[in-house]
Amino acid sequence: MFVLIWATLLLFVRGSNADTDMNFRTSVEERRACQGDYCITLNEGEITAEAGLCVVIPCSFTTSYWFTTQHMIWFKCEPSKQRCDDSEVIFHSNQSSRKVQSGFKGRVSLLKPDLVQKNCSIIINDLTESDSGSYQFRIKGLNYGRTDGFTFPIRATVSVKGLIQKPTVTILPLTEGQQTTLTCTAPGLCSGSVPEITWMWRGAGEIDSHITGNITAVKTEYLTAVTLRHSSTLTFNPSATQHHGTEVTCKVSFTNSITTEETVTLNVTSGNPTGEKMTACVFTVFPKILKSSACEVQSKVLTCVCISEGFPLPTIKWPLLKSHTDFSVTTTVSKLTVNSTVTLTVKDHSSTAVECVSSSVMGEERENLTIIITSEREEGPVQQCESYSAVLPWVVAAVSLIVNVICIICLIFLWNTRKKVKPNQEDRTYMSLQKTDVSPEYEVISQRLN
């Protein structure tokens, strides 16, 4: 019985560990490799990007306690090479270094230049398809006070394809005689070279059409330190007879002769000569934060999504980020909507709401997004069950061990007690009959009988 209980416990514990390992493997989204005390974390799989735009290589690292990082270096070389050469440097945190390849100078920068944070993420702008390849990271600094360096073995792989994204052309309802503005926004939110935006048009039925108006130069809007939005506007007075059915094209030209364009057809309605009351077309102009915006905390990770619409397209900011250094912000832009998602780790849930600010030249709107806490409700019972599952086998083992020890002690005690028990009256009579010495009285009796 004792052996059977222990065998069952061992199988239970091994099964629990196997389940834990399986869950860990399936939840991993990043690739981490260590060599001694030196570890690097990169995204799992290939990073894809488009020519003319930019790409971010997420990266973080740790070093030995005795190593002080002074410089960060990125290389690009063939995957067959175990270690890239100094001639293949694409970025060096020491700006005075002359080892950086000419084709990458000014195109690569750190997302966070603070070396203490050990964030080695970089952004590469003005991409071409030749930027596809394998990228390796190296650090230089002091190890026990001596100059030293370490090259991390695993690499990030980038694949650059042709540009397929198109510019976004925003157009308001057109009414004859009422001034209107078209806005063209270039694809991508990159901090590289400013693209060239050109307006072109052609009348219906291939008839040449001329639009007399004001075309603004490319406007650059800083969303973050490394994300910019480029746009241009065309303002004119539409005419139903001249402009209705006209195709207007916005062409965006990036460096290395990479271009993309989008064409829209103008639909101009005539005025109301009869003076009759007409129904107005309502269009969102001022920034408006949609009700689908929300925040959620799960496993100490706060994720907030703020969705706003307006014309011109608004910019979304998070005042919360002023007090944090480790976070990620993803911004996507559609025709009339901006979607901003922020993710960061929180140590406590003292705050009940996060403020989202949507602003443009038309105005500003602020909204406090209520935080929905799901970790205590969804993960609390699971963690409690896991805790009970881990403790239960050892409790059963301890109880079974105590019971077995008590049984053994009882058996020993009974055995010793039986050996020391005194003989009763019957035992003494039996023993007297078994005497071997015969007294003289018995000898006399025996002689008379004979």
Please give a structural write-up.
The chain is an alpha+beta fold and 450 residues long. Helix content is 21%, strand content 39%. It has helices spanning 2-27, 240-243, 375-419, 425-433, 440-449, and strands spanning 30-35, 38-43, 47-50, 55-57, 59-62, 67-77, 89-92, 108-110, 122-124, 133-143, 146-151, 156-161, 168-171, 174-175, 180-185, 196-202, 213-215, 219-222, 228-236, 247-254, 258-265, 268-269, 288-289, 294-298, 301-309, 315-317, 327-333, 337-345, 353-360, 363-373. The strands form seven sheets. Strands 23, 24, 25, 26, 27, 28, 29 and 30 form an eight-stranded mixed β-sheet that branches. Strands 3, 6, 7, 10, 11 and 12 form a six-stranded mixed β-sheet that branches. Strands 13, 15, 17, 18 and 19 form a five-stranded antiparallel β-sheet that branches. Residues 1-28, 206-210, 277-284, 377-387, 427-435 and 444-450 have low confidence and may be disordered.
